[in-house]
Structures are given as structure tokens and as C-alpha cells.
Design brief:
53% helix; mainly alpha; 477 residues; disordered C terminus; two-stranded antiparallel ribbon; 20 helices
Length: 477
């Protein structure tokens, strides 16, 4: 096996395996892009082995990227249904924070997380596989489905019951809302943990088949993040459903460390981690100890700070090790996963972190999020050809926007000034780099010019806000 890497923005490799010699296996490189309805079907695992079996990973579609239009279509549909029912399950501040977390989790691909994962998987498969299963067999496809879901259960369980893994997974649970946008609140670091848990599958599952199920298994978990779907009858005994997953996201004491399933709830029933939803008890979502912040960096790494403090303050070498490898609720003298009697009861009424910002700031944040979607799409589409400085600058624009939106939502005292500086710098970038953006990023001139005007206008607005000073600040908030 020949392996070489170019970091931080690309990893390429060649492998002799599956009876294929010297094939460059860059994932998705030679794949087609699934259409809207195929992407929609992939969210429910409604894809056939005959249409999702590929000779090597370069031909495996990027199902996750292709599903973005389906994500937003279903989010909008959920919003419409909630409005018709008179329910408010979507807040702008929480939703944009979730979407920004999803963007951050995808931006990590620029350091080739997927390729690193596949390098590791293919290396194990190439050197240590026990069987040569055909990549185009229905039986291999089904076996991979079961193996992937079984591995996901144990990864997910470890991510909750081992503190050092929880510091990445807590991002997904930090939302106090439960809707389809919550599904997109993903950790940027989680993939670096999960890839090791899936390695046993490399002993018999071809990499291309594994890559299909590693994507679709996660995509399946999108639609179960909703309060609109109640009970699915007999399917509740087999599949992970919205009802089961609501329990998993709840912070009510009976919900803690329950329902780790990916697609099949049978693993929880087999290993004693299943809990049915209690209709008589309102669910409170989020972390047992809420982050109370919309700062995207804190959302990603919020538990790391508390873990470091606990590690430092805990006396005794083995107790320090236990802080890392036991559950988040553990302390000296307590069971491995902590004492469930220590869990706080859910307050009534349920109170969420929701600083009172004006509607115009929420609308402003939404416009700025949508405005950067074309730049993000081109960044991910052209990541193999864009220069490293261009990618670094694009990432800086995306993450600075996410951070400043968090400052606004949290009503930080420096939020207005930070937003003014951000808008001035990005406006300067769009003005001075217009030709480069149109050529290297393949962005239409009208899009670049529109972004220029948006940021120049926004900078002017924040200048006026700061000039008005404290006298009218309360009205603006």
C-alpha cells in the first residue's frame, strides 16, 4: 500500500485492494451527484443496494452534501406545519447556532477528515481483512448496514459514558430546542473519535460499501429530530423513531443515557439502555448543565473547559484518570456513570436561554447567514482546487460571522463593535477581491456585488448604532 499526504488541506492516497491496482481513491472524486428525490430517500434509508454499491470510494456519491436541499426543504416544511398548529418550536437564535455548528462540522473536511478516516479504514482493510466480500453483493450491503449501525450504537454510548469523548458530542445536545435544525448541530471533533470505533468493520466490509453506510446511517437520523411525529406503531419496536430520540435528547432524569440507537432501536433493547417516552411528562431538552450561550466556539468546546477544571481540581492520580474515562456525572465515591439521584429535576415552567433581542437583529442575522451560503457552497465544491490561503480566508469569514452572530444573540457588550469590524473587513475583502472571487470561486458577478452592498450597508448601520450610543441602545436591543 502506497500512502502519502498533503496537509492541512488535502489527503490523497493510492491503495492496492479489492483486486484493483494503483487506483487513486479520493472520496467522491468520480461520483455523480444524487438528485433531490434520491437525496430525500437517503434520509429515510430508502435506497437499494443496486443503486448504492460502488467499486471504490472515488465513485461513492457525497450523499451528505447532496442532501442539503432536502434538509432545508424539510426544515421549512416543519416550520410551516408548526405555524399552522400554533406551535413555536423554532427560534432564530438557536436555529442559526445549530446551522453554524453544522457548517463548522463540514469545514473540518478541509483538513481531510474523511480522507484520514478512509486512509485508516483502507489500511486496516488492506492488511488485516478476514474475508473478501464482493462489493456488489446484496448480502455485503446488508451486512454493512447492520455492522455500521451496531458500531454506531457503541460509539454513541461511549460518547455519552466516557467524559473525554463527551466533550465533543455535547455539541449536538447543547440545543434546548428539538427540531430538524437541531439535527444539524454537529461536532467538528467527533469524527476523529468515531473513526476508530468503526475499524472492526474493516476486517470484512469493503471501503466503498462502508463509506455509503457511514453517510446514510447519519442521514437517517435527521428526520427523527422532530416533535411533530408521534408514535409509529409496530415500527417503534425496530427502528429509532422521533419518539425514541426525543427521550435521548431529553434532560429529564429518566432520559439520561438512554436510546443510543442510530437506525435500529433493537440494540438499546438488547443492551438495557432503552426507555420509552412518557407522554405525561413534558420533556426539557439540552444539557443537564446548559451552556447558556450561542457562541459557536463555546458550543463546540464548552465541556472542555469544565473537564480541564475538574481534572485540575480532582486530587489523586487515579481519580484524575477517572475524570477522563468515566461518565460526565462521576465523582470520587460515585458509580462509573454517576449517581442518578444527583440529577437536577426539570424546572416548571421550562426556561430556555433566550436573551431578548429585537426582531430586526434576528432578521439581520438570518440575512447574513443566507448571504454567505454561496461562498460556503463554492468552498466545499472547489476545495480540491482552491489555494490554501483562499480556503483559510473563506473559513475565517464563515467562522467570524458565526461568532459575531453569537455575540449579538448573547447580547455581549462588545457585540456591536465586533460586528462593525467584521462587516468593514469583509466588505473590503469583497471589494478588493471581486475579480478573484468570480474566477477562482466561480461566483457570478451579481452575487459578489450583492455581498459587497450587503456588508457596506451593514457596516454603515453598525456605525450609526455605535454613534447613537447608550442613549438609544435599549431601543435597538
Amino acid at each position: 500500500m502506497t500512502l502519502w499526504s498533503q496537509f492541512p488541506f488535502q489527503v490523497c492516497f493510492e491503495v492496492e485492494s479489492m483486486n484493483v491496482s494503483q487506483i487513486t481513491l479520493v472520496p467522491h472524486l468520480e461520483a455523480y451527484k444524487p438528485g433531490f428525490f434520491e437525496s430525500l430517500r437517503s434520509l429515510f434509508y430508502f435506497i437499494l443496494p443496486s443503486e448504492s454499491s460502488f467499486r471504490d470510494v472515488s465513485h461513492v456519491p457525497d450523499y451528505t452534501s447532496a442532501a442539503v436541499p432536502a434538509f432545508f426543504s424539510l426544515i421549512i416544511l416543519e416550520l410551516i406545519v408548526c405555524l399552522l398548529k400554533g406551535r413555536r418550536t423554532l427560534r432564530v437564535n438557536d436555529t442559526i447556532t445549530s446551522l453554524n455548528a453544522g457548517v463548522a462540522s463540514r469545514l473540518i473536511r478541509l483538513v481531510s477528515k474523511r480522507s484520514i478516516e478512509l486512509v485508516l479504514y483502507i489500511n486496516v482493510y488492506d492488511r488485516f481483512r478476514l474475508f473478501d466480500l464482493p462489493w456488489d453483493s446484496n448480502y455485503t450491503w446488508i451486512l454493512s448496514f447492520i455492522g455500521m449501525d451496531f458500531a454506531y450504537y457503541w460509539f454513541h454510548r461511549l460518547a455519552h459514558e466516557v467524559n473525554i469523548f463527551w466533550i465533543s458530542h455535547q455539541t449536538h445536545h447543547s440545543s434546548e430546542d428539538y427540531n430538524l435544525a437541531t439535527a444539524l448541530r454537529q461536532s467538528s471533533l467527533q469524527g476523529f473519535v468515531s473513526m476508530f470505533i468503526y475499524l472492526p468493520n474493516a476486517l470484512f466490509i469493503p471501503p466503498s460499501v462502508h463509506l455509503v453506510h457511514s453517510q446514510v446511517n447519519i442521514l437517517f437520523q435527521f428526520w427523527i429530530h422532530t416533535e411533530l411525529i408521534d408514535n409509529l406503531g409496530p415500527l417503534e419496536y425496530i427502528l429509532n423513531t422521533p419518539s425514541h430520540h426525543r427521550v435521548h435528547h431529553g434532560r429529564n432524569p429518566y432520559c439520561i443515557d438512554k436510546n443510543y440507537a442510530g437506525a435500529l432501536i433493537i440494540w438499546d433493547r438488547m443492551f438495557g439502555t432503552f426507555a420509552a417516552e412518557r407522554k405525561e411528562e413534558d420533556l426539557a431538552y439540552g444539557l443537564v448543565h446548559p451552556l447558556n450561550s450561542f457562541d459557536p466556539i463555546y458550543v463546540q468546546l464548552g465541556s472542555l473547559q469544565s473537564l480541564c477544571v475538574r481534572f485540575w481540581n480532582t486530587e489523586g492520580f487515579w481519580n484524575k484518570i477517572s475524570v477522563l474515562v468515566k461518565g460526565p456525572g462521576w465523582s470520587p465515591g460515585k458509580p462509573r456513570c454517576g449517581d442518578f439521584n444527583d440529577l437536577p429535576q426539570v424546572e416548571k415552567p421550562i426556561i430556555k436561554h433566550d436573551p431578548n433581542v429585537s426582531n430586526w437583529i434576528s432578521a439581520y442575522a438570518l440575512v447574513h447567514y443566507v448571504g454567505l451560503v454561496p461562498l460556503y457552497d463554492k468552498l466545499m465544491l472547489l476545495r480540491h482546487t482552491l489555494s490554501a490561503p483562499s480556503q483559510a480566508l473563506d473559513v475565517t469569514i464563515q467562522m467570524s460571522t458565526a461568532m459575531c452572530m453569537g455575540f449579538l444573540f448573547d447580547k455581549k457588550p462588545y457585540a456591536y463593535f465586533s460586528e462593525l469590524v467584521r462587516c468593514l473587513l469583509i466588505a473590503t475583502f469583497f471589494v478588493t477581491q471581486q475579480t478573484d472571487l468570480e474566477e477562482s470561486h466561480e461566483l457570478p458577478g451579481i452575487v459578489v456585488q450583492g455581498l459587497q452592498q450587503l456588508y457596506l450597508l451593514s457596516a454603515f448601520i453598525w456605525f450609526l448604532v455605535l454613534v447613537m450610543g447608550d442613549r438609544d441602545k435599549g431601543k435597538l436591543d
